[in-house]
Amino acid sequence: MNATVLVLNGPNLNRLGTREPEIYGSTTFSELTEICERHAQVHNLKADVRQTNSEAELIGWLHEAADAKLPVVLNPAAFTHYSYAVRDACSMLTAPLIEVHISNPSAREEFRHNSVISGVALGTIAGFGMDSYRMAIEQIARLNG
Ligand code: DQA
Question: Separation of 23 CA from ligand 1 center, angstroms?
């Protein structure tokens, strides 16, 4: 059976496709889900893709990942820049955590330049649109194999 990777997405990412398409592209969240599921399958993984607008729910999923020792691909969205609670939950993970962003936050507004998550992630992939997720899944597969 394929090992599971959790692909967790924070606030407003359910709006992909219509949300600032000049920044985030035209792919919808359900298309992104399919991309991740298919890409994971090719790499003998099973992607469990979720999105929430709630910090509490995201933290609950991270606790689940910590308990089950699951690898995580995380787009924390705006929580990236200020949520010490999400960071603390990430710190409990024992399997690899890869932070992803669709855009390149470092090339955008000043408040996006700092990630409170990066310091507890294995690595960060940003600026490659939906390919950021594909690359992260590939890295999880490589680390898993
Ligand atoms: C984002 C970048 C964040 O700054 C922003 O708040 C998001 C999306 C990205 O994927 O590019 O919601 O994480």
Answer: 9
